[in-house]
Amino acid sequence: MKFTAAQIAGILEGDIVGNPDVEVSKLAKIEEGTKGSLTFLANPKYNSYIYSTNASICIVNSTFEPEQTVSATLIKVEDAYKSFSKLLEYYNQVKLNKTGIEQPHFISETAKYGENIYLGAFTYIGENVVLGDNVKVYPNVYIGDNVKIGDNTMIFAGAKIYSESIIGDHCVIHSGAIVGADGFGFTPNEKGEYQKVPQTGNVIIEDFVDVGAGTTIDRATLGSTIIRKGVKLDNQIQIAHNVEIGAHTAIAAQTGVAGSTKIGKHCLIGGQVGIAGHLTIGDKVRIQAQSGIGRNVKDEETLQGSPALNYGDYNKSYVHFKNLPQTVKSIHNLEKKLESND
């Protein structure tokens, strides 16, 4: 796809300095810009590159005034970084705006779908599935029986949506994600063998949720595993059965949340965090990467470590921990002196 400077300025409501008809077809960092590419300058640390870049168009802040000749056409906007992000979003919308039903595919006769949908090749749509308007289902996606998916949701290639799952509007489910697999429910019998506990619940994902590639969300044993509105899940996260994640919480990669734990609203959870089961995590909680959470957490606490401590306490303790070898050596020296004085 090609865009002219005039088209881009129209999208961003910016002012053009240079040739309005110059075209671009790719994006680049300002220091790596080539002919036909679009870049941006937001950080003054990179100002020098605007005089050497070969990019055809550069988005800049309205306050920017060049001190030398600039070969690129400039588009001046109020905030270059935000405008570039807006342009990326627009580009993605255009790029991903596929419609139609590709062959081969399987769609149950009982399935229903709205307008302007896209079904990629080798998709499987089970019985009584309901797909909203503008839903995009990419190739090799499996959607089980009785699944409901809202308007403007995208399911990328290879994702698996098990039966009974409910997914809201404006969601994104990335490749390899699995929604609704059985929870890890087993109980030992008198012989010490494990017997499976049937997992009869479902998964509910509310509106504006992003689920990263390779992330798994297990169905509930009874009731629902619930991902509330606006939650953002990174890649390779494990959400166990009957977990509930509050609205607008963000969780980084490789975090695991054990069964029946409730996480509050507006929490930020770092990568590789382990959260034990049957806990309650409050609202606006911050958990640093690689922490282990084994207790309930109050609203607005910040934690680090395994087992996790209050963030301030952890930092104070770490000062002593990193000096532990020297401390031990000092104690041994004092013990020797005391022994010699006996």
Model description:
- The chain has 342 residues and is of the alpha/beta class.
- It has 2 domains: 3-95, Udp-n-acetylmuramoylalanyl-d-glutamate--2,6- Diaminopimelate Ligase, Chain: A, domain 1 (3-Layer(aba) Sandwich), CATH 3.40.1390; 100-314, UDP N-Acetylglucosamine Acyltransferase, domain 1 (3 Solenoid), CATH 2.160.10.
- The chain has 4 helices and 40 strands.
- The strands form 6 sheets. It has a 12-stranded mixed beta sheet. Strands 9-12-15-18-21-26-29-32-35-38 form a 10-stranded parallel beta sheet, with no helix packed on it.
- It is flat.
- The chain starts with a strand and ends with a helix.
- The mean pLDDT is 93.
- Residues 21-89 form the UDP-3-O-[3-hydroxymyristoyl] glucosamine N-acyltransferase non-repeat region domain.
- It catalyses: a UDP-3-O-[(3R)-3-hydroxyacyl]-alpha-D-glucosamine + a (3R)-hydroxyacyl-[ACP] = a UDP-2-N,3-O-bis[(3R)-3-hydroxyacyl]-alpha-D-glucosamine + holo-[ACP] + H(+).
- Catalyzes the N-acylation of UDP-3-O-acylglucosamine using 3-hydroxyacyl-ACP as the acyl donor. Is involved in the biosynthesis of lipid A, a phosphorylated glycolipid that anchors the lipopolysaccharide to the outer membrane of the cell.
- Pathway: Bacterial outer membrane biogenesis; LPS lipid A biosynthesis.
